[in-house]
Pyrrolidone-carboxylate peptidase (Fundicoccus ignavus), 215 residues
Amino acid sequence: MKILVTGFDPFGQDTINPALEAVKQLPNEILGASIIKLEIPTMFHQSANVVNLAIQQHQPDIVVHIGQAGGRFGITPERIAINLDDARIADNSSQQPIDQLIAENGPAAYFSQLPVKAMVANMQEVGIPSTVSNSAGTFVCNHIMYQTLHYCQMNYPQIQSGFIHVPYLPQQVADKASLPSMDLKTIVQGLVISIETIITYQGHADIKTVGGSLH
């Protein structure tokens, strides 16, 4: 089994991205699966080009995107990606699409193909803060999650994919005491547990447990 794991480069005012730093520290093999690590640009259209090329080149069984969600307390597997770009800030190539469809003829949304509730449960079991997220936003993270699900549906329907958001690193919030963070070692541990869960749940449905929210 081959798993493509991507991490975004820094964006906005940040000089580091915990997603990319964590991906760099993942082992090259997890439960016998080869882990292919890929840095992708925080750019709407370019990120898709890089990922699509990697899918063509490596033919992975699973694609797992990792991104930064500053302000979140835990590691949050995303349940759904929507067919909408609505950027509050410009990406790293100064693109700022507003109210634009990602895929003109694509569905309104795609659900993650990963066992998000089992991933959360297994992280919580070892004390890592984690919840299911029901919104990946409308920036590049949602874009690449939707784009990959759509691209694979159209071209490689056997490939599963999904997205995981991770919190800020402590050094990113040194001057922002009110914002939560998580140390890199814990983020890496959470991602390893998530990938182990993805592997062990191949051929099985996700667990049936509460993972919704009131707002």
